[in-house]
Specification:
about 30% strand, about 30% helix, alpha+beta, five-stranded antiparallel β-sheet
Length: about 200
């Protein structure tokens, strides 16, 4: 993941759009687990991996389409069952959820990715919470909340109650860089990621 966040910061500093794809949830046997990332640049090149194979190729095509059409974020589910194998020649037996997050306005994303990279480089851990799924009546898919170790925050997930819940979960996972997905009472799904310097 290190090379993905570093590249995200580099592209953001150059004001170049990209799509960040994150595995938010898995069930059963899958080639990658929650937290795996793939960054797709505007020219089609990429950094990171979602496990390779036909799934990654499908997600890559979708990310390219989003960049071309200036589309919004979306969540995709893949069931790696017999029907999938018959179409694409691969079966693991599990289920994977992918959140495709187009960063079309890098200035908005820059404060978030800057803090994340600094945490990787040895600064205090931070947590990034993102709305990855919503009901039809809501429109804040992709909204972000950055939570720092001192309790200060930047951004919002849409309401103070959700922000508070995400902050409480984030404080429990920040120090070891874990992740967790949870659902709010109004049906939003929030993916919470902790970022810290990796062990050496």
């Amino acid at each position: 993941m290190w090379e993905v966040v570093e590249e995200a910061l580099r592209l953001t500093n150059k004001n170049e759009p990209f799509v960040m794809v994150t595995v938010t949830c898995t069930r059963g046997s899958t080639p990658q687990k929650a937290g795996a990332k793939l960054l797709v640049r505007q020219d089609g090149s990429s950094v990171g991996t979602l496990g390779g194979g036909c799934i990654e190729g499908d997600i890559w095509c979708l990310a390219k389409q989003i960049l071309h059409e200036q589309g919004g974020p979306l969540l995709r589910r893949y069931d790696l069952n017999e029907a999938f194998a018959a179409r694409d020649g691969m079966v693991c037996g599990g289920t994977m959820y992918f959140f495709l997050d187009p960063i079309l306005k890098p200035d908005y994303f820059k404060p978030f990715i800057t803090e994340i990279v600094q945490a990787y480089r040895g600064d205090s851990p931070v947590v990034l919470a993102t709305v990855v799924n919503i009901s039809h009546s809501q429109s804040n898919l992709g909204s972000k909340l950055l939570i720092k170790e001192n309790g200060s925050t930047q951004g919002s997930l849409g309401d103070p109650e959700t922000d508070h819940e995400a902050s409480a979960i984030g404080s429990a996972i920040a120090s070891y860089g874990g992740n967790k997905i949870f659902q709010t009472r109004d049906g939003k799904e929030i993916f919470v990621e902790g970022y810290t310097s990796p062990p050496t």
